[in-house]
Design a protein that fits this description.
The complex is a heterodimer of chains A (about 120) and B (about 110).
Chain A: E1 3-7, E2 11-12, E3 18-25, E4 33-39, E5 45-51, E6 58-60, E7 68-73, E8 78-83, E9 92-99, E10 106-107, E11 111-115
Chain B: E1 4-7, E2 10-13, E3 19-25, E4 35-40, E5 47-51, E6 55-56, E7 64-69, E8 72-77, E9 86-92, E10 99-100, E11 104-108
Parallel strand pairs in B: 2-11
Antiparallel strand pairs in B: 1-3, 3-8, 4-5, 4-9, 5-6, 7-8, 9-10, 9-11
Classes of the chains: A mainly beta (about 120), B mainly beta (about 110).
Chain lengths: ~120, ~110
């Protein structure tokens, strides 16, 4: 059974940076597309980014392009999200999700990012 | 981008009764119906219920069913139980950006 554990969420000032991490186990991480999804307070789910098995392809939602970078380390079974130039509207719980059988079939418990001065 | 809409946005159901949520995509999700349904219970992370339009995920009770094709999809709960409260989302995975519907909040009477 897939297990995903996010970390790195914190309170950060507008314009600041943060790096989220997701530790994966229970499945073949190197063979699986991975994604980050967020849910802002009072809002619905928003897909943020995904990355191909070998890291050769990435995609982002328009609102984070140029500011966020998704990456992975298959040797460490880990997924990352580098977030720069953070804005108040980036405040959300960030989830990592795997796509073993189908898109976003397993999710972590989430990590809270708060952007505020 | 593919826009996903859902209706109703809110639903209150009596335990044991049936419930139905509709989802519409702005473009056809093609032959394989790249449409998934998720439930996010209060305080929990989202859980996959249905994938490729009509396939129940592992461990999901058979009172949940998905149907539809092209641009119109439906999630049905045959007999709602107290544990089914939460927000239900449809999501298209045909192309990036992956997009979700706004969510349907289900409460129990």
């Amino acid at each position: 059974e897939a297990q995903l554990v996010e970390s790195g969420g914190n309170l950060v000032q507008p314009g600041g940076s943060l790096r989220l991490a997701c530790a994966a186990s229970g499945f073949t991480f190197s063979g699986t597309w991975m994604s980050w999804v967020r849910r802002a307070p009072g809002k619905g789910l928003e897909w943020v980014a995904n990355i191909k098995q070998d890291g050769s392809e990435t995609a982002y939602v328009a609102s984070v392009k140029g500011r966020f970078t998704i990456s992975r380390d298959n040797a460490k079974n880990s997924l990352y999200l580098q977030m720069n130039s953070l804005r108040a509207e980036d405040t959300a719980v960030y989830y990592c999700a795997s796509s073993v059988l189908t898109t976003l079939d397993s999710w972590g418990q989430g990590t809270l990012v708060t952007v505020s001065s | 981008d593919i826009v996903m809409t859902q209706f109703p946005l809110s639903l209150t159901v009596t335990p044991g009764e049936a419930a139905s949520i509709s989802c519409r995509s702005s473009q056809s999700l093609l032959k394989y119906n790249h449409l998934n349904w998720f439930l996010q219970r209060p305080g929990q992370s989202p859980q996959l219920l249905i994938y490729l339009g009509s396939n129940r995920a592992s461990g999901v009770p058979d009172r949940f069913s998905g149907s539809g094709s092209g641009t119109d999809f439906t999630l049905k709960i045959s007999r709602v139980e107290a544990e089914d409260v939460g927000v239900y989302y449809c999501m298209q995975a045909l192309q990036t950006p992956i997009t979700f519907g706004p969510g349907t909040k289900v409460d129990i009477k």
